[in-house]
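QA checklist item 7 of 12: single-chain prediction sanity check.
[x] sequence parsed
[x] length recorded as 347
[x] structure emitted
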Amino acid sequence: MLRNSLIPDSLLSMRKIRNLGFISFLLLTLTTACSTADTQVSELTIYSGRSEEFIAPFFQIWQQQSGIKLNVRYGDSAELAAQILEEGKNSPADLFLSQDAGSLGAISNEQLFAPISSGVADQIPSQYSQANRDWIGVTARVRVFAYDPNRIKVTPNSITDLTKSIYKNQLAIAPTNASFQAFLTAVIEDKGRSFTKKWLTDLKANGVKVYAKNSAIVEAIDKGEVSIGLVNHYYVWEVSESLGREINVVNGYFEANDLGNLINVSGIGVLASSSKQETALDLVNFLTSPSTQSKFVSDTHEYSLISTISPPKDLPSLSQVGAPNIDLEVLKNIRGTQDLLIEVGLL
């Protein structure tokens, strides 16, 4: 007691302050440690419009490298986009991977994506992503006409040629498919609704056959059920691989700048409602890295969006396709396209 009584009050106050400061430091350290542990990401939820067969091997690689579990909900891109729009800010999804730009645009239009910062996916050209980087392109696919060269001796120069009598009862389309709907949206935006309605009506009058998906169209051509169909470029390769043999189907291209040569992209966006955005961006970086992009080409026959990576075997480069100049942003107007398909009786 005597020792303490000889110490000035000011010094005692300083000691108390130092002690309190030390205690505060310890509490801050413990709080920070707990906070870091609480925010340690162990899993992500992704809505995938790419099929499980297509994308699961790539997800598996990332899970093994990162140690983070991916909870994947697979489905049609347009249906998953509608689901996210319904869920809004309460969506459990951290990311949305779509097989087409239109479905991504619908989400972006409602401001449900968090813009992807520079430094992420920087090797992807801006023309294959949303202007404000709400979403980033992952791979490219080209619209083509698949056909049996033994049965189709005169190939079409334009999509308008498909209404001619030489293709009567020979053409197949997949109106429920997101890629077909994105293509049709481009036609509406470029040529107008009236032109597109007449084109679809003329196709019906010419006996167009409807299939559920692109691969079914290619299989039907190989079987001789139809002779020509509108699909994405990789389905001829995919069906051939699945059957383990060459098939009687090849890809054809319309004249340069025809809408039938549309280049669309699969792409990915991070939901603004996600609390795991930094980890989600790690997955975006993985999918757009040169090594993964090269693997997309070799394993799936899709195009890389990195210009220095060669196109799939026996296919022209994207610059050689003769694609029309269509801003991918317009492909978001998918609802009007679906309404038109319903109106003409194709949905």
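[x] summary fact logged: The chain has two domains: 43-140+264-323, 142-261+339-344.
[ ] second reviewer sign-off
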